[in-house]
Design goal:
Helices cover 70% and strands 0% of the residues. By secondary structure, it is mainly α. The relative contact order is 0.14.
Length: 103
């Protein structure tokens, strides 16, 4: 998450706001060192920042106009996984089976 937060610094496009976002993303990534929730929040923040870049026409990869859109589509999936505790698919399946059996 920390690296993803700084990814837009190279392309710029939003001036000083890029540095402000990177500062927020760095703080969230630091808090994420012991919290899956903060990592999930960070990926949602990055999703929003990618959407802004896509709408403004300043993609993360300058020669690929849809690169920010691609990140904005993929990042929420990572965020949901983190917000679910970063469990493996097998662990999630076991949790769902136990919950279904408890009904």
């Amino acid at each position: 998450m920390g690296g993803a937060g700084a990814a837009h610094l190279s392309g710029g496009g939003l001036g000083g706001w890029e540095f402000a976002f990177t500062a927020v993303a760095t703080y969230v990534a630091y808090r994420g060192l012991d919290s899956w929730t903060f990592i999930g929040i960070g990926w949602l923040l990055h999703t929003a920042w990618d959407a802004v870049h896509h709408v403004r026409g300043n993609p993360i990869v300058p020669f690929d106009h849809t690169s920010s859109l691609g990140c904005a589509i993929c990042d929420p999936v990572i965020a949901l996984w983190c917000l679910a505790g970063g469990r493996t698919p097998a662990e999630l399946l076991r949790t769902w089976r136990v919950a279904a059996g408890a009904r």
